[in-house]
Amino acid sequence: MLLLLWLVGATVMACALNSAPVAAPSASAPPLTPTAAATRDPATAAPITTTRPITLTLWTSEEFAPGDTPAGRILRSQFDAFNATYPNFRVEVVLKKTQGKGGLLDALLTTHAVAPILLPDLIVLDLAELPLAAQAGVLQSYDGFLPTELNNDLFPFAKQAAHVQNRWVGMPFAADAQHLVYHKTLVRKVPLSWDDVLRLETPLALPLGGDDAFLLQYAALASPGVLPTPLALDPSATAQVLSFFKRARDARALPPNALALTSAGECWRAFADGQVPMAQVLASRYLAERDRLPNALYAVVPTRDGKTATLANAWAFALVTADPTRQAVAARFVQFLTQSERLSPWLRAARRLPASRTPLSLAVEPPEYATFVRDMLERATAVPHASAYAKSAAAWRAGIAAVWRGETTPEEAARTIAAVK
Questions:
Q1: Which residue in 89, 202, 299, 302 is a FRET match for 372, CA 20 to 30 A apart?
Q2: Angstrom distance (rounded) from CA 285 to CA 349
Q3: pLDDT at residue 46 in the model
Q4: Can you state the percent helix, strand and coil of the chain, rounding each to 5?
């Protein structure tokens, strides 16, 4: 057993040591206090009193790191600006995979278990991963380190998901959400409700083969925020959603291959390829490709009563270090990077939405789309980590398929799904 523990620890240490850090600005001779430029930034709740140089370690994925892409170059310039403003402090970036084995969350939990000395000071996590990391005891609280104004500026779904067990454990900075996209010359009237969908003359692509179509429609019947875990599904609401899918299928308002569409990304491809005139898609894909599809317009995904609803996910800076001084420096870096005038250019280049209200007008164009996005994000629902509802998801995917094929009724399928624990 001792040999096994030694081997695991050595492996983690080797991986950490071999991870190639992204070049960060080199620190010059550190002054005793930040330069005058820093005084233009709002002060964090926790002052920094150290006079010694500090190098923070940030674990992140390539998407959220300085690099050679347009978004990466903007982020590199922001890192440079932080180092110029605070010559005492620099940030070293270590790249990890986004998800899976060896990914950010997996590396964090594994390192915490076998070699905690190698943990980073900060890490970028998917918002849905924050509870798993916090419950493992890895994350520290931002309370007392970041101004409450930043917390209050978050959209409701992001604010709720960033707090675990009454502790502020993540600072969301980038988001994505789902909405409808349609071809303006082929769709005469955009559907708002289920009844509108049933009267469609052209099909609407919903990702029935995955989880997004079911979860968005189910969330529209509940209150926005964060779906609870464990996910206890209401049989009546579940039956309503399944019945809508069946009626839409019978009315030919959904494409025949709807069960083969497993994600909003696949729905976008069906729309972009001209297979369908309407689809449930990610805002990030619309932002990235709208210029080459001038006939593509946006709207909310139709729900039972026309109520605005969307699924949203986000990414957050999470605080790992337990050292109070390093926590204060890390919080200063997070606050510096998430100020609107610095964050907005990166969001535009990265084709992402902000997780808070203030950057929205600078980050999202044109103004009418920014207004649409704000209304949508105010009513968004965050989805828990897939591991929290894996069994239920398998049940509702099977139930949707069975109802689609006429093998069972929506009510029978809903009872089966609700019984899954």
A1: 202
A2: 13
A3: 64
A4: 45, 15, 35
Residues 6+ apart with CB under 8 A from 39: none
Find where tokens 């609107």 sit. 340
**Would you say 308 and 155 are in contact if contact means Cβ atoms under 8 Å apart?**
no
Domains in the chain with CATH codes: 8-175+314-372 (3.40.190.10), 176-312+374-418 (3.40.190.10)
Closest CA to 29 of 88, 86, 70, 73: 88
Mean pLDDT by 10 residues, the chain (421 residues): 44 43 36 35 62 94 96 97 95 96 96 97 97 96 95 97 96 98 96 96 96 96 80 92 97 96 97 97 98 96 96 97 96 96 97 98 97 97 90 96 97 95 80
Q: Is residue 182 within a helix (H) or strand (E), and if so which, with residue range?
A: strand 171-183
Instruction: Find out whether 218 and 241 touch, Cβ atoms under 8 Å.
Output: yes
Q: How are beta strands 310-319 and 171-183 bridged, if at all?
A: antiparallel
CA 37/CA 80 separation, integer angstroms: 13
Task: Tally Cβ neighbours within 10 Å of residue 383.
Answer: 23
Tokens, residue 265: 């990304």
165: left (phi > 0), else alpha (psi -120 to 50), else beta?
left
CA 28/CA 54 separation, integer angstroms: 12
How far is Cα 197 from Cα 418, in angstroms, rounded to an integer?
26
Taking the CB of residue 396, how many other CB atoms lie within 10 A of it?
A: 26
